[in-house]
Amino acid sequence: MSKSQSHPSDWSTNESTNGMSNLDSSDAADFPQPVEYVAPDVANREQKAVTRSKFLVFFVLLLAVSGTAAATYILMEDEEQGDFEASFAGLGSEIATVTRQKVDQLFSAVDAYAVFIASEAKSESNSSWPFVYVSDFSLKSDKIAALFGFERPALAIAPLVREEEKERWTSYVLETAPVWYQESIDNEGQNTTVEEYMDMTVTYVHHRAIVNSEEAAIPTTMSAPSLPLWQRYPLEVATNGNLTVSYDLKAVAEVADLFKLSSSTHRPSIGFTRLPDTRPGTLGRNVLDSQIVQPITDDEKLVGMVWLRLPWRDFFQNLHIDGIFGTIVVIRSSCEIDRDGDVISAISYAIEGSRAEFLGDFDAHDPKYDDQVVSEVIVDLNLDSEDIPTGLCVPILTVELYPTDELAAKYGTSKPMLYATVVVVIFAFTSLVFLLYDYYVGRRQRKFMDRIVRQDQIVSNVFPAAIRDRLYESGQKGSQDDALLDPLGGGGGTAGSPLADLFPETTIVFADIAGFTAWSSAREPAQVFVLLETIYGAFDKHAYRRSVFKVETVGDCYVAVAGLPEPDNDHAANVCRFARDCVKTMKEVTVKLEVTLGPDTSDLDLRVGIHR
């Protein structure tokens, strides 16, 4: 028989193994049930630590990928926004610069045109102002209009007619108008006749007013000089069905202010004015354009004005800059215009390629693009404040350019989302690899922990719990896993201090089976095993109940002790009770086993020796 040792706190309950199946259930119930084996706390602690570490790693990875994806998206979006802002800044600067250059060119052309008109009138006419006429006016105006920056501008000359000259002016118009009408018809390729135009001509200086619910030409009777329109390019019929010849421009409040300013400074002036939209299909609609008044002088004497309508829509449509799209243009004036309670200081246009659309007499840009504004002063007359008549404001015009959502969308791509998605996919792949790795590592760890638990169970069967714990504690000098896998220090390492305690108060019991040698020599090994396992199993239960510690079994000898490893004041009495129980159980067990192990089994007896 091999030597075996166990502790009563950890006995197996397998009845088929220890032979207790041969005992009656009532007898087995007299014995206390063994304590279930409990795995060491270190296993649970390590498993929980591993689980926490995995969750921590996964959480850190999740935070990392979330932060990385968000940062990638934001950085890519910021890059696109930066490209958009830089591109618009360049485009806006180009538009603003070209606008300023074209406006400067326009004012220079108007000034040159006024000088040209004065020179032509003086050289071609034997009369003095205002009774002058420029031959081939339409042809000459068409050539110089190419410098204005837009096609077919509304351009006219308006001589200064004093009150005493008005009657003669009427005769002059009646006499001279047919001449330049015919020149304009020929040059402009019109199908209208001179007679038709003369029927639509009001020859006297007039303004228009509502009379009996109808618009009528009212003669101008003011004592101050009038400013009647005279030669005009192109020659067009007004929306009221008449030509504008002899119409007193001073009847228009905005033009009257401009004339007053220009006559005082002998410099050009500009302002906003509501004028009819001349595009096809826009009858009855007004737009806010600018009017320019340029003085005409003869020997430094003011004799008339060049009047020019500046249609900003046509102006912006002829900038000829590639890539203009989704841009809001705001022309802002430093002077507010109050007309019928309507205060105007800005007009807005939307530019889409080669098309410009009037949005209204207000600032129409989206405020969220305020920080991307590109502005440029396009008109600053630089007049001396002493030359400006009281009550008049000299405007400074500034062009402001803003992008739109449509333009911003041109620069928006799916790259930010694509890059962020790639980061998430990489995280998903990394997580999958991590989970696979964790699965295989976990499987290895489970095998490792199963081995540790089995090793600990063996140690617990050999040593009391207190001794087992002290063995583990002595192994703390190495790793905890080493202490579990090699609790006895048999792994080849340096042995620690031996575990040896003094127990002065103990009682030892020796019990052997009388007649066992002769009986076992006539039995099969399996029968001998059944006998010993059944008897010693019953003794183990008595030892647990009587607080007796089983030391070892050698063959048919059972050695136990009371008073250790936990001190016990009743160690002697407990050993005696244990010995009495063992003797009684020996008789009961051998009688029950006689049926399966042979008739002489009941002859076996138990010899007990006690030493204190």
Task: Describe the structure in your own words.
- By secondary structure, this protein is α+β, with helices and mostly antiparallel strands.
- The chain has 15 helices and 16 strands.
- Helix 3 (41-124) packs antiparallel against helix 10 (415-462).
- The chain is rod-shaped.
- Residues 1-36 have low confidence and may be disordered.
Helix content: 40-55%
Q: Give me the number of helical elements.
A: 15
Let me know the number of strands: 16
Tertiary shape = rod-shaped
- Class computed from helices, strands and strand pairing: alpha+beta
Poorly predicted segments = 1-36
Taking Cα atoms only, what radius of gyration do you get, to the nearest Å?
59 Å
Average pLDDT, to the nearest integer?
A: 80
SSE blueprint:
Layout (H helix, E strand, L loop, with lengths): L14 H4 L6 H4 L12 H84 L12 H8 L9 E6 L6 H23 L5 H6 L6 E6 L2 E6 L12 E2 L19 H13 L3 E8 L9 E13 L2 E10 L1 H6 L9 E13 L2 E11 L2 E6 L13 E6 L17 E7 L1 H7 L3 H48 L2 H10 L5 H6 L21 E8 L1 H6 L3 H21 L3 E6 L2 E6 L8 H27 L7 E7 L1
Antiparallel strand pairs: 1-4, 1-7, 2-3, 5-6, 6-7, 8-9, 8-12, 9-10, 11-12, 13-15, 13-16, 14-15
Helix pairs in contact: 3-10, 14-15
How would you describe this structure in keywords?
single chain; about 600 residues; alpha+beta; five-stranded antiparallel sheet; about 20% strand; rod-shaped; disordered N terminus
